[in-house]
Design goal:
The chain is mainly α and about 130 residues long. The protein has 7 helices and no strands.
Length: about 130
């Protein structure tokens, strides 16, 4: 059983390991959780159609630069996109501080439709309620 006695059925040897390898970013608030859920949906869309979704991000980065000039986060996103879909998917799902910070300045606006956004928001809200129990 799990060392925390939660009756989850996990082998206690792995509970200690999971604690050690969990990302050490700042705690997620509901907004961070919502961003994570939306970007997990974006990651799924990248797996299905990388060219279309990554083009949205590249177009948004170019638009940002035209309107606001260069920004370190846009350079970081551009670098990650240049590493290919798997690197982007990993960053979109990263629960650590780097993932949280970069998701907050995401170039993936327009990658999700309204229904997908609502689904992600509902999941984030549900996760936040479960954390407070």
């Amino acid at each position: 059983m799990c060392a925390c006695a939660c009756a989850c059925g996990k082998d206690s040897r792995y509970s200690a390991i999971e604690t050690l390898v969990k990302p050490k970013g700042k705690a997620m608030n509901e907004s961070d959780r919502r961003n994570l859920e939306m970007h997990r949906l974006v990651a799924g869309k990248i797996q299905r159609d990388p060219l279309t979704i990554l083009k949205i991000a590249i177009d948004n980065i170019q638009k940002y630069r035209r309107e606001h000039g260069d920004h370190p986060y846009m350079r970081e996103w551009e670098s990650v996109i240049g590493q290919g879909p798997n690197a982007v998917i990993a960053l979109l799902s990263d629960e650590g501080e780097r993932g949280q910070v970069l998701r907050s300045s995401s170039p993936f606006a327009g990658a999700l439709n309204e229904q997908e956004r609502r689904e992600a928001i509902a999941r984030a809200h549900s996760a936040a309620r479960q954390q407070t129990r």
